[in-house]
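Q: How do we represent a protein-ligand complex in a form that can be generated token by token?
A: Start from the inputs.
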Amino acid sequence: MQPMDRATAVMAGLRAKVDTALGQWAAAHLSGEGVLGAAMREALLSPGKRVRPVLTLLAGELYRVDPDRLIGLALIPEVIHAASLVLDDLPSMDDAPLRRGRPSLHMAYGEAAAILAAFDLLSRAHASLPAALERARIPRRRLAEAQLELDRVIDSLCRAQVRDLEAAASTVEELEEIHAGKTGALFVLAAGWGALAGRPTGVERQAVEAFARNLGLAFQVIDDVLDVTGRPQRLGKPAGKDAGRVTFVDLLGVAAARRLARDLAETASGALDLFGDRADTLKRFAEGVVTRDA
Ligand code: GRG
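Then emit the structure tokens for the protein with geranylgeranyl diphosphate bound:
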């Protein structure tokens, strides 16, 4: 196989692994009957791209860590992400009728169930951390630190969301800061945990985090571009959904926003140079983030 083909096959395989594991996680942790269980399962299992868990598994691949070891840990940022989407769609925030091509959670289950489902997902993500670390063979003494990282990311999401809703950014730097606190923070957590299982040096951990921070921003910039140029059927939501907030396209226009995303993805990949060819698939993944059309 050519290197490009191998990378594509690896990513597709990991995504399938994530989908299977998410189904198993939901069966184990969200099996309650009634509206709350159904709403949580819908929030988590509706068809997302699974970018964050694949990122964890690929960061583990830098150290040849078996994805089976990492899969429990990989799901946790995805559960947080799913909860954040539910909250983001609420009438008091984005007021979005559609998510992933389906009615958003509050449209399908009502606002109260949607809010409660998001809270419960957060709590269950937290509760599954000890077992996930054990499966990853990460020493138990790391648990308190990982819990703190998880709490900090949730705090960061909340703070940055407030600024986003206030449309507080008037420069690209301010907008980057807001999205570094949202998309960037979850990408950093996801990639950082993947690398953790490989016992990285301090420099390596910083490199992986720099990669993820820049890639998260690139992902968000392209999200803004697709909001204007994307086809609603591919996006699973109406175009122009983010109207009312300041976007990278508002500040830069489409062409310059695309250039910014490419630059960020290149900076991201450059941060991984110290890993040599072990980072090939992760770099290919970064390329895919900026060339995506959904
Ligand atoms: C308490 C968890 C929590 C959050 C409160 C609501 C909120 C604060 C933050 C919103 C964060 C948010 C939804 C950011 C948008 C990030 C983004 C790029 C979403 C789209 O991600 P994709 O494209 O979605 O990966 P899929 O559907 O593919 O999973």
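The longest strand covers residues 98-99. The chain has one domain: 3-291.
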